[in-house]
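Technical note accompanying the year-one report. For the benefit of new consortium partners, we illustrate the data format agreed upon in the data management plan: each record pairs a sequence with a structure-token string. No post-processing was applied to the example shown here.
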Amino acid sequence: MKKTFLLLTGGCLMCACNAPKKITYPETAKVDTVDVYFGTEVPDPYRWLENDTSAATAAWVEAQNEVTNAYLERIPFRGQLLERLTELTNYEKIGTPSKKHGKYYFYRNDGLQNQSVLYVQDALDSEARVFLDPNQLSDDGTVALSGLSFSNDGRYAAYSISRSGSDWREIFVMDAETGELLDDHILWAKFSGAQWEGDGFYYSAYDAPEAGKEYSNVNENHKIFYHKPGEPQSKDRLVYHNPNHPKRFYTASVTEDERILFIYESGEGRGNALYMKDLRKPNAPVVSLATDFEYQYYPIETVGDNLYFYTNYQAPKGKVMVADINQPKLENWKEVIPENGSVLSSVNIIANKLLIIYEKDAAHHAYVYGLEGDLTQEIPLPSLGSVGFSGNKDDKECFFGFTSFTIPGATYTYDIDSNTYELFRAPEVKFNPDAFTTEQIFFDSKDGTKVPMFLTYKKGLKRDGKNPVYLYGYGGFNISLNPGFSTARIPFLENGGIYVQVNLRGGGEYGEEWHVAGTKMQKQNVFDDFISAAEYLIANHYTSPEKIAIVGGSNGGLLVGACMAQRPELFGVAIPQVGVMDMLRYHKFTIGWNWASDYGTSEDSPEMFEYLRSYSPIHALKPGTTYPATLVTTADHDDRVVPAHSFKFAATLQECNDGTHPTLIRIETKAGHGAGKPIAKVLEEQADIYSFIMYNLGMKPKF
């Protein structure tokens, strides 16, 4: 049942905490739209905001941004904060090099370039030259380089770009030696790069979407194609398509020796199916290796006739297995490194050794194993942090990048034989890392589960209950939150703040069991963990409710929305960023259906519908409630979590909030879910978010 007619609600006057004058919010129209779920009627009065290309929505966005910008401009220290953030960000950032065809490639940013530039060197001590500069692809830095791969003869490079933060990709081909751009231009690729084989490459794409619905309609019929440079996209060969499952994702990869084509099928569970084709044999069939979508199956590398795989099949924390290339089905795989007490985070084969990264209590630990699974050595990392390796299977040269909460990304050269490493490059940031410390705390959640969190703060902190806290979490999709550096946090830390990162259930920090414990009918565990973290910090005198800001993006935006709805008195500020806020309809947009393995859907059963409605941020808000000072953030080109989620949540919150605290929404233009955002936009957003937090927590920062 759906009934629709427009009702206008009058604008209301609401008092903003610490604001010099009252806020007059824009009028938001209501429609009498009602959906029926298993006999239960659920109103959706702001349904019209789902039409992100309508004139009415555009006018609403403009009006909301005017109110938000006016509020932010009145914060007396916002300009100084932006200057400090700009100063901190303005340092040379150089990525870990990778070696291709005897040359070294790395990304470098002078400091404030909107996009990092890809450089190439003939040797590590030779002069670097620009290979590809994405800043030349647009006037405002909103075109980002999203992928790059080389043909196996080194002649061509295929690179993909994203415009305005969208998940849509365009693929171009260039001559790797001269830099000359060829005529090739592939459109509507998504969740795909270019995988070279022979004189062409594989990629995945959709049919061209309906005009005007490019960023909102459900994506269907993902297909794998093969493209040869110099030919138009219309002539690309269809390699794989499964019309029986139009919503699933289909992607390809090719082994370095071009012997095997792997095809991945995903989107219907927590894992993926895996297929392979022997490219050495003409007309070879596509062979199914594993079909259980509840587990992950990923090839690592081919060494001779041995195929090495990562999987969590019958191993919730992950293991390494090997198969003979002539008997590749799962039933013939053999364990090389069995599951142990830590989570297997990543595997590389470098110098014919297995370089393994394990997660122990959310921090990385690195080891070297032989190809037969024998442990050779542990690599003593610089401190508690995160690491990533770069190197080739047959090349002894190895690099790793390392970062922590107080150490910006540094690159080291690693000698596997001697198990020693030397600093190769380290950035210089204008702050004193020795002035800060990080501790890890384990607290009891509501049901007694031990949950870890990292606290970073200035040394000499007094636990007097008055410290401002930035409480961050995610808790979903088997994603781990490991230690990492961000210049955006530094002004908050310098002014007495505590940055807290919680490793909630639903993430991957303790394997698949930890992940599943925060999914579907157990999703409340995630919110309980986050709420319990705040309660621990209060009980142990780190802070008090009015001094806590909760922050999270995407699935973390859902976390913030749900927790502020359930315990509004527990937090002083809430920042839900690009959040999944309508749990009854999330699966009806772009790739939202793919999240059902974590969330379930409102169409599954009466019980699942009721459970989702109970915590869905839009539906959990109650009229006349004092909610924390809230700044919702989203972007007009977000086709991962469509902005309608944030639009409807902000409109509902402005209606329900009792007027004690500000309720604002910041809507970025020419930006998406977050990836590829130019530095200029990043700095403006950080300044807005942190000034809103610090202002509403009663901080008086000095810069």
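Partners are asked to follow this layout when depositing records. Residues 1-20 have pLDDT under 50 and may be disordered.
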